[in-house]
Design brief:
The structure is a single chain. This protein has one domain: Porin, CATH 2.40.160. 8% of the residues lie in helices and 41% in strands. It has a 16-stranded antiparallel beta barrel with strand order 1-2-3-4-5-6-7-8-9-10-11-12-13-14-15-16. Strand 6 and strand 7 form a beta hairpin. It starts with a helix and ends with a strand.
Length: 464
């Protein structure tokens, strides 16, 4: 299995190098992906995601939430030119899918992270999803099938989406009752189905039902929408629902506002042992020129935590602003409370809050630079703990809850895009924790012994 993973990684590195070499012979565009990939906290078309870093938002006329339709492949002999003008390469789209408006694509993400502390357990503490020190990681081999709905405000349409992912990131994307039935917790690599849902649209109303991403955070798990390889604490399940199973309706009130409301089984719950409904809803807003966007979402319901089943309420505010054609600003603010959820004082409420601030500067068509600062406070030690405690295995960091201080991290990085299908993302990140050890005497870094760490990471993202 290790040999197979190494061969896969080598093959994609060679393919990426070949793409880079070809790119030097002609002027290349930025990394532009289908709208079905460019998903941010707004799950909308006026994204300011990583593949548009530093560039002006690219709205769809009318501002509707529409994924790009697949481009029909020209048949041999019909005058088609084999080489295009540098547009991103896409998987050949089968005629069966083209006729039905289904887009097929995906990406491969692989990387490595070096920790200055060289932790004995080889885990980078609460970092996710690049949580292993000095170890090659095939994070995601992702394939999607997407049929977006489009009504132009008039009539009916039907669609849906299926995503299939293999890699080490399965540990952070698993849902109870789904991947827990597919994968063994005693493995680093596994298979997940982060999304499979149907969608019905009528005029300005869209309803999806099934298993889907929440898009409440500024960053999301698919790397094509993020600037950095590493993830913020806010975006990997500590404070964000990430994946839910249920139904959600989006209603376009006007060209600026969209209302969102739905019910689901709860955070990372395909099957809900509590048999209770969770609410997720709010509003999304975009300015006339789509340079400013805002999302305010509320999540409320009974959730399973480290201290049992309690009522949990969280609020997420995401704001982005395109300052100019080169500079993009993004931010997120989170506040939450769980009744009786404190891990330190039994029976007390648990509170948490924090913010993430991001600046992305386009240096030229191939290079962009990014800066991220994050501060979160897990006031009652109920949110930040190791994924190994969920897996009940040594295939994840095993830090216990009860860290009641503040977590800070600063990341600086570059994105290099030699062509429309490849992005290389080097990054330097410093994390530090201001607060006491938990009841077991554990600190978050260097095998539970240190309050800070410095990591250097790089990943290669190849889309198709």
């Amino acid at each position: 299995m290790k040999l197979a993973r190494c061969l896969i990684g080598t093959a994609f590195l060679v393919a990426a190098w070949a793409g880079w070499a070809e790119a030097q012979t002609r002027v290349q565009p930025q990394l532009l992906q289908p709208e079905s990939l460019r998903r941010t906290a707004f799950d909308d078309d006026y994204s300011t995601s990583a593949d548009q870093a530093g560039a002006a938002p690219v709205p769809t006329p009318g501002g509707e939430n529409v994924a790009a339709q697949p481009t029909p492949s020209a048949a041999p002999g019909d005058g088609a030119v084999c080489c295009d003008d540098g547009a991103p390469w896409k998987l050949p789209q089968p005629c069966l899918f083209q006729c039905r408006g289904i887009d097929v694509g995906g990406w491969i993400q692989q990387g490595i992270t070096a920790n200055s502390r060289h932790p004995a357990d080889r885990f980078n503490g609460p970092l996710a999803t690049n949580d292993r020190d000095r170890e090659y990681m095939l994070n995601q081999a992702w394939l999607y099938f997407n049929r977006p709905t489009k009504t132009d405000g008039c009539g009916w349409d039907f669609g849906g989406r299926v995503d299939v992912v293999y890699g080490e990131d399965w540990r952070f994307g698993q849902c109870f009752g789904l991947e827990t039935r597919i994968d063994s917790p005693n493995q680093f690599y596994g298979l997940i189905l982060p999304q499979f849902y149907g969608e019905v649209a009528y005029n300005d109303l869209t309803v999806k039902f099934g298993h889907f991403a929440t898009f409440t955070a500024y960053e999301i798990i698919p790397p094509v929408a993020n600037f950095f390889y590493s993830h913020s604490y806010m975006s990997v399940g500590y404070f964000d629902p990430m994946l839910v199973t249920g139904a959600q309706a989006d209603y376009k009130l006007n060209d600026h506002l969209t209302a969102v409301a739905g019910i689901n089984n709860g955070w990372q719950m395909f099957e809900d042992p509590t048999d209770t409904a969770n609410f997720l809803g709010g509003v999304k807003w975009a300015s006339d020129n789509k340079r400013s966007t805002m999302s305010l979402m509320v999540d409320a319901g009974k959730q399973i935590g480290f201290t049992g089943v309690h009522d949990r309420t969280s609020m997420y505010l995401v704001y982005t602003y395109q300052l100019n054609d080169r500079l993009t600003y993004g931010s997120e603010y989170v506040v939450g409370r769980e009744k009786g959820g404190s891990f330190v004082v039994p029976g007390d409420d648990a509170d948490w809050y924090g913010t993430e601030q991001v600046l992305i500067l386009k240096l030229n068509p191939k290079w962009s630079a990014g800066l991220r600062y994050e501060w979160v406070r897990d006031q009652d030690g109920s949110r930040i703990a190791g994924i190994g405690n969920v897996l009940l295995t040594d295939r994840g960091w095993d830090g216990l809850p009860g860290l009641t201080g503040s977590f800070h991290d600063v990341s600086v990085g570059l994105n290099y895009r030699p062509n429309g299908n490849v992005v290389l993302r080097p990054e330097l990140r410093w994390d530090w924790y201001a607060g006491p050890a938990n009841a077991q005497g554990q600190l978050p870094f260097d095998n539970h012994t240190q309050r800070d760490q410095l990591t250097a990471a790089i990943d290669l993202l190849v889309t198709f």
